[in-house]
Amino acid sequence: MEKRRICLVIEDNDDIRGLIGMVLRRAGFEVRSAATGAEGIAAAADPAVSLVTLDLGLPDMDGHVVARAVRALSSAPLLFITARAEDDDLLAGMASGAAAYLTKPFRAQELRDAANHLCPDPAHAPASADDQAELAKRRP
Questions:
Q1: CB-based contacts of 68: which residues, under 8 Å, 6+ apart?
Q2: Quick one: which of 64, 92, 82 has its CA closest to 20?
Q3: What gap in Å lies between CA 121 and CA 85, rounded to an integer?
Q4: Which of 12-26, 45-59, 124-138 is least confident?
Q5: DSSP string across the chain
Q6: What is the distance in angstroms between the CA of the first residue and the CA of the last residue of the chain?
């Protein structure tokens, strides 16, 4: 059975949430979204979620609080996408569980690359040693 890559996008801005979703769908992800920290935390409890993007400037709670709550519920990598670009922000992001950090404005290719790095597409993954041996047996 093929494993789906499901990304949860936690972003309060409708336009940015839509852009992130479009880029990730084109990269092969199924995208789910949440506009608040509370919605995001609830959605992150789904074990099918394989990647979470998170804006730090949410209307209902600080993104670092959301990150720690998501981290307690899920082992999915956290990709912060935020306008907070100072070194202290980056360090605080990593301390609260970020696996990667993009600053706004970001380029679509940066987002695709980061998402694919954190959550590789199993359809494009190199074959395991066992798979390679099996393929070698079938060759004429």
A1: 96, 97
A2: 82
A3: 29
A4: 124-138
A5: -PPPPEEEEE-S-HHHHHHHHHHHHHTT-EEEEESSHHHHHHHHT-TT--EEEE-SB-SSSBHHHHHHHHHHH--SPEEEEES--SHHHHHHHHHTTEEEEEESS--HHHHHHHHHHHS--GGGSPPPHHHHHHHHHH--
A6: 28
Q: Which two tokens stand for residue 6?
A: 């499901």
Residue indicated by tokens 């987002």: 111
Quote the pTM value.
0.83
Q: How far apart are CA 92 and CA 65, in angstroms?
A: 11
Q: Give 85-135 pLDDT, tens digit per residue.
A: 677 767 777 778 888 989 899 999 999 999 999 999 877 655 455 545 554
Number of C-beta neighbours around residue 33 at 10 A? 18
Q: What is the mean pLDDT of residues 16-22?
A: 96
Q: How far is CA 29 from CA 50, 64, 66, 76, 114, in A?
A: 9, 24, 22, 14, 13
Q: How far apart are CA 122 and CA 119, in angstroms?
A: 9
pLDDT, one tens digit per residue, over 74-92 is 999 999 998 876 777 677 7
